[in-house]
């Protein structure tokens, strides 16, 4: 997936589940460039962040599009830039220049956001061609939620019903059927559309308690009542659902807390 132009809920260093929301202004060669969205962080400037490979890597927990948020970040940066320029002009005439690092950081963050408007990518490596990734329809994020899906009748077997969404990509949902334990022992992929057919999401809702109860039901499956391969599959899905809930909790705990000196958020809950 090309994250450029999207909001990323991520941990820049992958440490301790610390995360916040950032604007991704470039995505190339396994790296992303980001601009923080939290008010008061306008002078935080991040070097391109690797998402994989040796050393500390950024971890993306969620992604979506929000043009209004990007515009608000740009307006805050512009206001901060004017303030720093006025302060710099005053201090230059009285005591010498100061806060040059903050001034440069704000300017660079604005350049990165402006690059989203004209197709340029700012960074240490050449960007991928702008048409290398197909445009994707903007959709809400359903990961970690329960959804009720209506599947086209011409599907091989009509699987309309309720599902737990384990993960979501630009074109598909990855779900677990909640009908019973035996149907919930594998993760299924439902593309949003296939040719002229598409799934319809009739309803979606948060119900972590139900998901935990479903995990317990999967954990209760044993070889006395079920086949060995069903029990193995149930254990795998149970772990996937548990990790999904843990990521969801980590992100909710880390939201709206302050950045530390490295540009990461600090939170008593996450750091305990």
Question: Topology of this structure?
Answer:
Blueprint: E1 7-11, E2 20-28, E3 31-36, E4 49-50, E5 59-64, H1 67-94, H2 100-118, E6 146-150, E7 161-168, E8 172-177, E9 188-191, E10 193-194, E11 197-198, E12 200-205, H3 208-219, H4 228-254, H5 268-271
Antiparallel strand pairs: 1-2, 1-5, 2-3, 3-4, 6-7, 6-12, 7-8, 8-9, 10-11
What does this structure look like?
This protein is of the alpha+beta class and 272 residues long. It folds into 2 domains: 1-138, no CATH class; 146-254, no CATH class. It is built from 5 helices and 12 strands. The chain has helices at residues 67-94, 100-118, 208-219, 228-254, 268-271, and strands at 7-11, 20-28, 31-36, 49-50, 59-64, 146-150, 161-168, 172-177, 188-191, 193-194, 197-198, 200-205. The strands form 3 sheets. A 5-stranded antiparallel sheet has the order 4-3-2-1-5. The chain has a 5-stranded antiparallel sheet with strand order 9-8-7-6-12. The two termini are 33 Å apart.
Write down the overall geometry: elongated
Beta fraction of the residues? 15-25%
Order of SSEs: EEEEEHHEEEEEEEHHH
**Overall average pLDDT:** 78
The chain-level structural class is alpha+beta
Number of domains: 2
Compute the gyration radius: what is it? 22 Å
Main beta sheet, described?
5 strands, antiparallel
């Amino acid at each position: 997936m090309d994250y450029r132009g999207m909001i990323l809920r991520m941990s820049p260093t992958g440490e301790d589940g610390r995360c916040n929301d950032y604007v991704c202004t470039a995505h190339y060669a396994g790296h992303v460039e980001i601009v923080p969205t939290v008010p008061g962080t306008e002078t935080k400037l991040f070097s391109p962040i690797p998402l994989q490979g040796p050393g500390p890597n950024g971890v993306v927990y969620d992604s979506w599009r929000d043009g209004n948020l990007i515009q608000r970040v740009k307006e805050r940066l512009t206001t901060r830039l004017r303030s720093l320029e006025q302060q710099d002009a005053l201090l230059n005439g009285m005591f010498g220049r100061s806060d040059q690092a903050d001034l440069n950081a704000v300017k660079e963050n604005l350049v990165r956001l402006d690059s989203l408007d004209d197709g340029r990518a700012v960074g240490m490596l050449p960007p991928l061609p702008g048409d290398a990734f197909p445009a994707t329809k903007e959709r809400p994020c359903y990961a970690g939620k329960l959804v009720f899906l209506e599947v086209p009748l011409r599907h091989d077997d009509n699987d309309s019903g309720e599902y737990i969404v384990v993960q979501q990509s630009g074109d598909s949902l990855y779900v677990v059927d909640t009908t019973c334990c035996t149907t919930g022992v594998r993760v299924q992929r439902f593309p949003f559309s296939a040719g002229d057919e598409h799934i319809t999401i009739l309803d979606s809702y948060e119900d972590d308690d139900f998901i935990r109860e479903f995990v317990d039901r999967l954990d209760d499956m044993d070889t006395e009542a079920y086949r060995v391969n069903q029990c193995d599959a149930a254990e795998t899905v149970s772990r996937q659902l548990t990790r999904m809930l843990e990521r969801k909790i980590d992100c909710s705990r880390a939201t709206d807390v302050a950045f530390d000196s490295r540009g990461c958020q600090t939170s008593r809950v996450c750091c305990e």
